[in-house]
Design goal:
3-stranded mixed β-sheet, CBS-domain, CBS_dom, CBS domain-containing protein, 6 strands, CBS_dom_sf
Length: 147
């Protein structure tokens, strides 16, 4: 089994896509993350859903979870408004990490190792300089446990 057997079309976002739009795409399509593409539509980064959420949750609540508990429900529900006016670019880590990208010939073990090493819920598959799609963790696990 190769990446070409597991790859599926996958939505992408650009660096200047509004975070609210990216979050809506994640929620509407129940995605584990997004592929962020550059101006040539090639993968620039993989953006796990947790990184989008990180922009919405106030830093003080991330740093001290006890503070999140003392905020009343009405104010806690409003935290998503913090994403307004922000872009996907702001979700990306300041230091580039290994990009989980492979070619269609990658084996299931290569895909699993790449996901584990990069802590990514998906791997972008590129062939001939074009994004083909992605292999998700769900597709990989489904394949691993049906063999």
């Amino acid at each position: 089994m190769r990446a070409r057997d597991l790859v599926a079309p996958f939505p992408t976002v650009g660096l200047d896509t509004p975070v609210v739009e990216a979050a809506r795409l994640l929620a509407d399509q129940d995605l584990p993350g997004l592929i962020v593409v550059d101006e040539r539509d090639l993968p620039r980064s993989i953006l796990p859903g947790t990184q989008v959420l990180r922009l919405a949750v106030p830093t003080y609540c991330q740093d001290d979870p006890a503070l999140a508990r003392v905020i009343d429900e009405a104010h806690a529900d409003a935290f998503l408004r913090g994403m307004q006016g922000r872009t996907v670019r702001e979700c990306l880590p300041p230091e580039p990490r290994e990009l989980p990208v492979t070619d269609p010939d990658a084996t299931v073990l290569e895909l699993a190792a790449l996901m584990a090493r990069t802590r990514s819920p998906l791997v972008a598959v590129v062939e001939g300089g074009s994004l083909v799609g992605a292999v998700t963790l769900q597709a990989l696990l489904d394949r691993m446990f049906t063999v």
